[in-house]
Design goal:
Helix content is 66%, strand content 12%. It is globular, with a radius of gyration of 17 Å. It is of the alpha+beta class and 115 residues long. It has a three-stranded antiparallel sheet. It starts with a helix and ends with a helix.
Length: 115
């Protein structure tokens, strides 16, 4: 059974996956290359989570996809389009604002603990 901390940690990570995935789609990536790039940055994502997310982002018109059939195994590449870049930039601003606000709250908690 998952501990409460693990459950909250999973919830926190789930909320940031869209931003993490979009951050890597300034250049075309296929699913496995995306998983590798994210893992290299310390962000673990299961393919069973990634592909539905990519389909959702494409349906929301943030991504464009295309098939590369030049190799023996065809790969579907995803990249942010203009609208996706616009949304990504707004999300990045919001993320930075939220992390500053949260850091301020957490620092406030530390001050209370030392009182």
């Amino acid at each position: 059974m998952m501990s409460l901390v693990e459950s909250f940690t999973t919830e926190l990570r789930r909320g940031t996956l869209t931003l993490a995935v979009l951050s890597q789609l300034g250049t075309p990536q296929y699913g496995y290359s995306l998983v590798q790039r994210l893992e290299k940055a310390g962000v673990t994502i299961e393919q069973s989570t990634l592909y539905p997310l990519l389909r959702r982002l494409e349906k929301q018109k943030l991504l464009t996809s295309s098939w590369d059939t030049t190799e023996s195994r065809p790969r579907k590449y995803y990249v942010m389009n203009e609208y996706g870049i616009e949304i990504y930039e707004q999300l990045t601003k919001e993320w930075k604002k939220m992390t500053l606000e949260l850091a301020s709250l957490l620092e406030g908690d530390e001050h209370h603990e030392s009182d």
